[in-house]
Specification:
This protein is mainly α. It has two domains: 2-36 and 110-178; 41-108. The protein has seven helices and no strands. Helix 1 (2-38) packs antiparallel against helix 6.
Length: 179
């Protein structure tokens, strides 16, 4: 109930910020699912197995291990590189670059939207602050003396609510974006 009062007091801009916050949460959840469930794997175990197979000159078995985990970007990248392991260093480095260019976008997909949403939340908070100040100045300029204090307080509260809400959405979104 207090949350609804807070949102109603923050006005239309506050509701817009809430929508941006929900969008940010959905994006964080989607990226977490992709990174930890779809693409996640025991990296140490995988690296150890591949390294042992390569050092034992069992390249075909290392490729088979990577092929079994091809849905995982790390395994796919290793497979691309191991397929060129019998070539010169330049070809191996090119395979490395190809593997990175194919797999890094899977990890960073839609991540730039999180930064954008954080910026939009901040700007909406600023818009709400300006709106609240306009309400405050209108109250001082036009309201009758009996209502002036209540209208002034309402304008200031709109300013503070939207500023707080904008920052409450933007800060976690930026933290998740940078993590």
């Amino acid at each position: 109930m207090a949350f609804l009062k807070f949102m109603n007091d923050s006005g239309f801009v506050g509701w817009c910020i809430l929508v941006v916050g929900i969008g940010s949460l959905v994006l964080v959840a989607e990226r977490a699912k992709a990174l930890y469930k779809e693409y996640g794997m025991n990296v140490e175990e995988f690296m150890g197995k591949v390294q042992n197979l390569v050092l034992a000159k069992k390249l075909d078995e290392a490729l088979l291990l990577c092929a079994q985990l091809e849905k995982k970007p790390l395994a796919s990248a290793f497979k691309t590189i191991l397929e060129k392991a019998d070539r010169d260093d330049d070809t191996i480095f090119q395979a490395h670059d190809i593997a990175l260019s194919e797999n890094v976008p899977l990890y960073t997909k839609r991540l730039h939207y999180l930064s954008m949403l954080a910026n939009v939340a901040t700007l909406l908070g600023l818009l709400g602050t300006i709106h609240g100040l306009i309400l405050s100045f209108q109250a001082v300029a036009t309201a009758d003396p009996a209502q002036k204090q209540a209208l002034l307080a309402h304008g200031i509260s709109v300013s503070m609510y939207t500023t707080a809400l904008g920052l409450a959405v933007a800060i976690p979104a930026m933290v998740f974006f940078l993590s």
